[in-house]
Amino acid sequence: MASGAFARDLATYFGDRDRNKKPDPDAKRAPKVFSQLPEAHREAATAFHALVKAGTFPMLGTCEISAFGFDCVKNELYGAEDARYFGLAYDDYGDMYLLDLPTGQVRRWAHDRDPFEDDEDFESLDAFAFAVVRAELAAEGSIPSNALPALFDRLGFGWYTQE
Predict the structure, then answer these.
(1) Which of 73, 76, 105, 146 is packed most tightly, with the most Cβ within 10 A?
(2) How many C-beta neighbours within 10 Å does residue 61 have?
(3) Please, are residues 23 and 52 in contact by the beta-carbon 8 Å criterion?
């Protein structure tokens, strides 16, 4: 993420899409809360925030960033009413992706079942970004979606195989 690879992938593969220019009003707290992340995860979070803040993040079904900055405590997000979570995005199913500040993991919060499943966590924002690009390409038919479950299983991204 911090290397710019995610930004390049977004521009390369989704450059013709509309841009999402309206993150959650609470996105302004990102720099402060990112100081709570383990040091190894701060650069990636800052790079993600820069994409959102610049208004260059494309509209994606797998990663809708209008939830970036979502305050789980203030909004009483069921099962995630904890300051440890920072809203990153939601998907076209209505599930949210939350950054777990103490660990740097990205956790998927499901709206229609047990909010968190361990096999749906990403170890980092970099892993999440890798998966988002490929899942979006598969959803639009640019790459074969039948190849993703095996790849994502090997990488520990169990969430895609359950869709």
Answers:
(1) 105
(2) 12
(3) yes
| pLDDT score of 11 more than 80 | yes
Amino acid (one-letter) located at 7: A
Phi/psi region, residue 76 (left: phi>0; alpha: psi -120 to 50; beta: rest), is: left
Q: How many residues does the chain have?
A: 163
Name residue 163's amino acid.
Answer: E
DSSP string, 55-79: T-PBP-SS-BGGGTT-BTTTTT-TT
Residues 51, 58: Cα–Cα separation, whole Å: 10
Closest CA to 46 of 90, 9, 13, 86: 86
Share of the chain above pLDDT 70, in %: 95
* CA 79/CA 40 separation, integer angstroms: 27
Q: pLDDT-derived band of residue 118, with 50, 70 and 90 as boundaries?
A: low
Cβ-based neighbour number of residue 144 at 10 Å: 9
Q: What residue segments make up the domains of the chain, in order of their start? A: 5-158
pLDDT in tens, 56-91: 899 999 899 999 999 999 999 999 999 999 999 998
